[in-house]
Structures are given as structure tokens and as C-alpha cells.
Amino acid sequence: MLPGAAAELVRLNVDVIVTGGVTSTHAAKKATATIPIVMTNDPDPVSSGFVASLAHPGGNVTGLSGSGADLAGKRLDLLKEVVPKLNRVAVLITGSEVQKQNVAQIKEMERSAEALPLRLQILELLTSKDIEPAFQRAVKERAGAVLSGAVTVLLTHRKEVAELAVKKRLPVMYGRQEFVEAGGLLVYAASVTDLSRRAAIYVDKILKGAKPADLPIEQPTKFELVINLKSAKQIGLIIPLNVLARADRVIR
Hints:
- The protein is α/β, with parallel strands linked by helices.
- It folds into two domains: 2-67 and 192-222, 3-Layer(aba) Sandwich (Rossmann fold), CATH 3.40.50.2300; 71-189 and 224-251, 3-Layer(aba) Sandwich (Rossmann fold), CATH 3.40.50.
- The protein is built from eleven helices and ten strands.
- The protein has a seven-stranded mixed β-sheet, with helices on both faces. The protein has a three-stranded parallel β-sheet with strand order 1-2-3.
- Helix 1 (2-11) crosses helix 2 and helix 5 runs parallel beside helix 7.
- The longest helix has 17 residues, at 99-115.
- The chain is elongated and about 55 Å long.
- The two termini are 36 Å apart.
């Protein structure tokens, strides 16, 4: 679907293509090496192979990374606060994304986990059929919480994922607000609204003659913590008051 949409945009000879994640950026990049592409939310564009470096993209892709350098650490910190006795976290990653990106993200998580200390259980998802078995493995291996990094595979099935988390009574930290709105427990992530607003500045510069290769990739500056108290109640979890006080939004 995305490759076809990207090919259609190229056929129409648009001035700029704006993408919202790794999969869409990959499709656009594969479709054209000349039309400017502005990313709004790619976790690691260097490891994904979209740009040569953050400072000097060097091609037709520029925009914003959706991941701060210590985002994984902050997510694990929050899980530890929400589940004080936590010692093992299952991490869901997607096998369909660029493998270099997975390696980079896992290394970042491992460094953060070692400091807490927490043990990580890496669970790879290839298709939506792997979702329920992954939760079953997490429970079997006594994970006390789940960190979801597999946005591409899980996003379409976010309601099913939220229901599974309740069924297995597992606290889950997500990477996109859509999950919490569908019944998930909590998300800590870069503000999509802020990233989209800043992406518009890139589009404006390009339309005025700037080259993507000359526009450095910017990191997120605004992050949001959203907590779903309905989900917490369903799994029998009490969110500490100091965590609730820091939330940007609470779903009751």
C-alpha cells in the first residue's frame, strides 16, 4: 500500500513528500532519490540508512528524528516507578524494520536497563500473528512489564494489544499516543503535534529553495506522558501520585 502511494506521488511530480514514520520514509526513499522528503518522526534515520548523518543528511531526506538520546532510559525509569518491584521487562520489536535500527535501539535499552538494574527479554514480531504468542512468552518468562517498540506491527492492532495486556495483567509502555487512546496503559514519547509543526518549517524552507542535504536533522524537544487510569484499574495497578502529577494528560 505505502509503496504504491509513494509511486503515485512521484508520478504526480509533487514538490515535497512528508512522511510519518520509518515504513513510510522507506517507501518514499525507495520511490525517489530526487524529490525532497521531510520526515516527521523517525527514531534513528542514520541507522535506518535514510541520511549520512544528523548534521549533514547528504541526500534528498531531512526532517525530524522522533527519538531523543535517552528516551529508552526514561521509559524504563517510568516503568520502574509504576511497578516498583520490577526486575524483568519484555521488549517488543519488529523484525520488518531495518535491522540496524533494532540493534541501535536494543543497545540503548540495554545500557539503560543495566543501570536500574533490569533484565530485558527481547521479543521479535514479524506479523500480527506473533502478537499473542509474544505476550504469552512474556508471562511465561515472568516479565513484570512490557516496553513496546514495535510500532509498525502493533499500531493497526492497538485495540487487540490493549486487550491482551489487560487479559495478561501486564503494564505496557507504548511509543505512540494512539495506543493509550485505544485502551493502553501509558505512553512517553515525543509530541507528534510538535514534530508535525516543526516539519512544516522544513517544507517551507525547501519550497523557498533550500536543499534537504543542507538541512540538519533535528531532535525532539517536547515529550508527553499520557496515562490511562481505566487500564490501570483493569490490571489492578495503582499509579503513584508523583507519576500522575507529571502526566501531560490522564485518561479517566
